[in-house]
Amino acid sequence: MNAPIVLTIAGFDGSGGAGVDIDMRTIRLNGCFAHGAITALTAQNSTRVDRVVPVNIDMLEAQLHVLADEVDFSAIKIGLIPNLRCVEAIVSFVAKYDIHCPIVVDPVSVSTSGTSLAESGVAEVLIERLGSKLTVLMPNVQETEELTGKRIGILNEVLIAGEQIRHKGCENVIVTGGHILGHEGTDVWFFSGGFEILAPQERFTDSVRGTGCMFSSALAANLAQRVSMRDAIVSAKSFVEAAIRNSVILGNGQPVTSLGVSGKSIPQ
């Protein structure tokens, strides 16, 4: 039996630290085939983002449709969506192909260096338009602040904000909490029965680029293999932590993961 196929819809980062490239490597290392559709081209390195150029909508639609005409996806991961036209193209694609597989959304809006990557309000519209098709939403703390209009500085504020987002209609919300004081690396999973605080196995002092991309892509790959939600989350989190341990510095900024370099898998 062939491995499941996971589609990632995201931006392209030529430095290899985030976006479609790291998504597809992560998906493969987590037991699935990877297909990709690019939403935007970026000019960036480890310290800054100089430009973000959305792809032509016709080209985005062509990428999605030519892939879906040939294969069925077992999960979809959605990353950088630069504008509302891209949202509509993706929503129309999901409807046209009657997609019912898990959809994991990492609502990327601002780069680690602080550069805006998407039009204001894109994440809110995507959540609303996908509706019940959206399986998991994975905002980081900054994105959670944007979705709720609340400042977050402590874990209790994450608990309030995360539940507020889930009530927007998201079945599962995972607030990735990288930099909450005293709870670095702690994520919180919100579901219909409550929430679960997921502490890291170890604390990391350095912030590694692309961890949100890896987490959401690994989760999508796990769900594609019909792993239970909790086990899928825990396994994906463990994968990201292992990737952080194997990160390297290539430029003047944040480290990047060495995922798949020399054909080596990341040890769990």
Question: Key features?
Answer:
single chain, 268 residues, alpha/beta, UDP-N-acetylmuramoyl-L-alanine:D-glutamate ligase, nine-stranded mixed beta sheet, two-stranded antiparallel ribbon, 11 strands, 36% helix, 21% strand, globular
How does this structure look, described?
This protein is of the alpha/beta class and 268 residues long. It has a single domain, classed as UDP-N-acetylmuramoyl-L-alanine:D-glutamate ligase (3-Layer(aba) Sandwich). Helices cover 36% and strands 21% of the residues. It has a 9-stranded mixed β-sheet with strand order 3-2-1-4-5-6-7-8-9, with helices on both faces. A two-stranded antiparallel sheet has the order 10-11. The protein starts with a strand and ends in an 11-residue tail after the last strand.
Series of secondary-structure elements, N-terminal to C-terminal:
EHEEHEHEHEHHEEEHHEE
Number of helical regions: 8
What structural category do the secondary elements indicate?
alpha/beta
- The CATH architecture term is 3-Layer(aba) Sandwich
Terminal residue distance: 25 Å
Average of the residue pLDDT scores: 89
CATH superfamily: Ribokinase
Q: How many beta-strand elements?
A: 11
Can you tell me the number of structural domains? 1
Integer-rounded radius of gyration: 17 Å
CATH overall fold name? UDP-N-acetylmuramoyl-L-alanine:D-glutamate ligase
Low-confidence parts, pLDDT < 50 over ≥5 residues? none
Largest sheet, in brief, is: 9 strands, mixed
Spatial sequence of strands, sheet with the most strands: 3-2-1-4-5-6-7-8-9
Proportion of residues in β-strands: 15-25%
Looking at the structure, what is the overall shape? globular
Specify the helix fraction band: 25-40%
Please identify the top-level CATH class: Alpha Beta
